[in-house]
Amino acid sequence: MKIDENLQHASFIISITVNNMSNLPTTRQFKKLSDVCIIERGWSPRPIKEFLTNDENWINRIKIWDTKNQTKYINHTAEKIKPEWVKRSRMVYPWDFILSNSMSFGKPYIMQTSGCIHDWRLVLRPDESIDKDFMYLLLWSQFMYNKFEQTAAWTWVKNLNIGKVKIIEIPLPPIATQHKIVSILDQISLKISTNTTHIRSQLDHLDELWASSLSEVFEKWWWETKTISDISHKIQYWYTGKTIENWKVRYLRITDIQNNNVNWEMVPFVKISQEEAKKYELNIGDVVFARTGATVWKSFLINETWKDKIFASYLIRVVPNYKYLKPEFLKYFFQSWKYRSQIFADVVWAAQPNFNGKKLGQIQIPLPSLEIQTSIVSQLDEVSQTISSLRSQYTAQLQHYDELWASVLDQAFCGKLVQE
Q: Structure pTM?
């Protein structure tokens, strides 16, 4: 298995296009953003209950959360408001541009509907001297993001300063040149989008391949079945303490385990006596398990000596019995659907999903002989390494396309995409 050669070829062609741009002359005209746009701050105080409605016939009330899961366009909102409240709010209309404050700082959205806009947004209403698609691409560019960063005001979050945004100077070629730039950018964007979609489908395929590999192993109905308690010396709850910046003992939390790895430089410390720490010290072959939160299924195999490192709140430690079990076999079982289906069948769903040590001990695991376990671990190691290598290549390719697109936009707004 290797990276698709068509993707490599497409990447090469786009790279050549970008490199050739740098040979074009730079001719830019600049105008202040306020010269081509009406710029206003959103304003919509919280209406009293009697003015709120779910009636689709009433007016959209655009809040900070309405942009969270939308990409380019805003065409619907979760909340509606009665017309009587409109005079107390800032109205926005189709083809107005919305700039994010705080969350997704500086990110642009295009209105496809009208409505009242919340305070944590800037509204830009461009005139006829600037093409709307050109405007959107400009607002997405690193050029504009850097300008927004320079004008940012800090309160308890990072905000756009409307006064400084108004005087940002933007490159503004003639409208015919804008149309040419948009046309070329659309062609490049389509090529990049087509290839990145293909790469993401390949990443999904890798996930399916890994799930299939695990199912093939752990769906062996003829193997003897044991519980986690049967094949463990100990299922131990966590130590609860308060994290501090510096001490002798590191304090491993669920969030410190990312992509099956731990960056110990980022793990905080906890103040605990050496005698107490030994009770919770992690050893080679231990498996820690997340017992709450969105990653309630997450587990991690300790494969090195971790002196002065203990496990923290919301983790449970399983100490395998080597007489019955290879720790690596348990690690792979904890990644399988056979395991997760049992976890989610018994999860207590409150504000956060929860699972406890007793229920973990009752999880059923198919258990072949140690000899077969060793063989299976070897095979899964090989598959895992191959998938990991491919995943790294595909992820690097996605990053490369992101960098290409950023470079294309930079060249476009430096006047090197088309000649005026």
A: 0.75
